[in-house]
Amino acid sequence: MNILAIGDVIGSIGCRFLRSHLSSIKKMKNIDLVIANGENSADGNGLTPSSVRYLFDSGVDVITSGNHSFRRRESYDMYDSCETLLRPANFPSAAPGKGVCIVDMGRIQVGVINLMGVVYLESLDSPFECADRILAEKRMPKITFVDFHAEATGEKRSFAYYLDGRVSAVYGTHTHVQTADECILPKGTGYISDLGMTGPINSVLGVKPELAIRKMKTKMPVRFDLASGDCCINGAIFSIDEKTGKSLSVERLNIM
C-alpha cells in the first residue's frame, strides 16, 4: 500500500496547484490514500469550510491541522461534523473536533493520528502521553500514520523513536521546509522530520519575502500576504506492508 502525505497547503494558490497535479501523482505513484495538512489552506492562515471542501474534492482523503486549527471560527462546526478533518489530539477536550480517524478502505483500514509538539509552541498535553493513551484505549488499525505538527527537530525525532514499531509512520509538519532525513527506523516505522509545504516557491514559508524581512527587521506588526508565482508540492510517499503495518520505503516528493 502506498500512502502520500502532503506538507502544509498554503492558501488558495497552494490548493489550486495541488488540485492541478494530485490526480496525475496518484496515478503515477499508485497512491492508495492521501493525507494533507490543511491548517493554512485558507488565505491568511487557518482553514474554512470552502478550503476543506476544495481539498477533499481535489482528491485528499484525510486533512490534518496544527497550531492554526482554530484560527477561523467558521471552521469549528466542520471539525465536529467531518470524520476525516482532524485537529491535534492533545488539544483540550473542550476544543471542537477530534485528533484521530480511521479510514475504511474495504480490504483494509488506515488510522490517522494528529498531534502537536510543545517545544516553542503552545503548552498542550504531552504528545508522548497522549499518543500512549490513544494507542492503549482505541483500536487503531495495523496501519496507522501520525502527523506530528511541531517546531523542533529534536522533539520530532524523539517522538518518532518513541513510537517506533507501534505505528507505521511518523512525519513532521509545521516548518514548511522539507527535510532530507527520510528513513525507516529500527523497528519499522517510516519517518521524515518535515514534509515541507505546498505553495509558492519564491516565498518565506509561503509569505511574500519583503513582508517577512520587514517583520524580522522591525519587530513591528506586519500583515502577511501570500506570495504568488510558481508553486511546489512537498510531501512523502510511504510504502507499507499490509500484513505487518511496517514501512517498506519512504520517498520524498517534490513537484514543481
Can you give a write-up of this model?
The strands form 2 sheets. Strands 1, 2, 3, 4, 11, 12 and 13 form a 7-stranded mixed beta sheet that branches. The longest helix has 19 residues, at 11-29. The chain is α/β, with parallel strands linked by helices and 256 residues long. Helix 1 runs parallel beside helix 2. It has one domain (2-255): Metallo-dependent phosphatases (Purple Acid Phosphatase, chain A, domain 2, 4-Layer Sandwich). It is 26% helix and 27% strand. The model has no long low-confidence stretch (mean pLDDT 97). The protein has helices spanning 11-29, 49-57, 76-81, 127-137, 153-163, 209-218, and strands at residues 2-6, 8-9, 33-37, 62-64, 100-104, 109-116, 143-149, 169-173, 183-184, 190-192, 197-200, 231-240, 247-255.
- Count the E strands: 13
Helix content: 25-40%
Please state the structural category: alpha/beta
What percentage of the residues does DSSP assign to strands (E)? 25-35%
Biggest sheet statistics: 7 strands, mixed
Provide the CATH architecture: 4-Layer Sandwich
Gist?
The chain is α/β, with parallel strands linked by helices. 26% of the residues lie in helices and 27% in strands.
Name a few traits of the molecule.
26% helix; Purple Acid Phosphatase, chain A, domain 2; alpha/beta; 13 strands
Break the fold down into its secondary structure elements and pairings.
Blueprint: E1 2-6, E2 8-9, H1 11-29, E3 33-37, H2 49-57, E4 62-64, H3 76-81, E5 100-104, E6 109-116, H4 127-137, E7 143-149, H5 153-163, E8 169-173, E9 183-184, E10 190-192, E11 197-200, H6 209-218, E12 231-240, E13 247-255
